[in-house]
Amino acid sequence: MENYRIDPAKGMEFGLYTLGDHLPNPIAGERISAEQRIHEFIELAQLAEQAGIDFFSVGESHQEYFATQAHAVVLSAIAQATEKIKISSSSTIISTSDPVRVYENFSTIDLISKGRAEIVAGRASRVGLFDLLGYDLRNYEELYEEKFELLLKINQEEVVNWEGEFRAPLKDARVLPRPQNGSLPIWRAVGGNPASAIKAGYAGVPMYLAHLGGPVASFKRAIDAYREAATQSGFDPTELPISTAGFFYTAETTQQAQKEYYPHINEGMKLTNGQGFPKQAFAQSDDLRTVINVGSPQQVIEKILYQHEQFGHQRFIAQMDFGGVPFDKLRKNIELIGTEILPAIKKYTAKQ
């Protein structure tokens, strides 16, 4: 785990992520300005750091109702505004980006943050950016695989020789600047599909597993498939970290948490994905065996520890700001994470 800057002795890492959505508050019926929303991301990262949270990441999306199209710029501001929290994309859409430019940007963020930057490389669940940036959606898989491979190569080799289908060749190319410690932790973003998890395992790279909802057992299958593929490919899976990422919200009681957060998830998904989130599926968050971590602090602690028991993962990343959640509610969530949830998770997951 040392190569990925993770210390199991300190317990499972807890992080926050934002997709960078810029959605109206469905209860108040108002939407803040993009300027205010971007400053919220920076302040959230600062509050997270003060609460002892390990990790903060920002997503990239190029459609209406989002404000972090230039997510690397936002991360750069966060790097300057914080001192110790790890920072990352979640994710960088490598399929429609030039891996050279991505690496230049994140190496620079790493130097600004003094060695705290990481990259999560994804393929885009919302595909409107293919038209916007001039890529053919029919090459969805091929673009991702080729560019992810090149990104890893740039990370591993200071002088790069490479040829592919979707980018001009590199001949004795030096991609600069180099990150503080010579390389960056680069994670492969994976949905619930075991086939994608298996590719991450074969490549021997850390896996960032996103989930919107469903039973823990179904995501365990993807994790088991990832570790098995890594072993078959000659890697030691105990040296490959796994992160999960999904909805999170806490309040005094589980009923209050569900009541406060559901309208934001449901109305936000209608605007960004074209359909809402099934209320019955969301209500199952009070079941220990489901992955949505919404509930009272004690409920959330028990769920995250159960998931850790099943997954054996090294990091959980919470998404709590989706759908126009008022900032005072986000601040209260961070307070509860820092005072109640984080101490319990660290206590029970730290390896002696």
UniProtKB/TrEMBL annotation:
- Look up the domain of life of the source: Bacteria
Give the Gene Ontology MF terms in alphabetical order. Answer: monooxygenase activity; oxidoreductase activity, acting on paired donors, with incorporation or reduction of molecular oxygen
- This chain's protein is named LLM class flavin-dependent oxidoreductase
User: Which species?
Assistant: Salicibibacter cibi
Q: Which UniProt keywords apply?
A: Monooxygenase, Oxidoreductase
Q: Where is the Luciferase-like domain?
A: 12-311
Q: Does the keyword Oxidoreductase apply?
A: yes
- GO cellular component term of the entry, any: cytosol
Query: Record's Pfam families?
Result: Bac_luciferase (PF00296)
Q: Is Oxidoreductase found in the keyword set?
A: yes
* SUPFAM superfamilies named among the record's database cross-references: Bacterial luciferase-like (SSF51679)
Organism placement in taxonomy: Bacteria, Bacillati, Bacillota, Bacilli, Bacillales
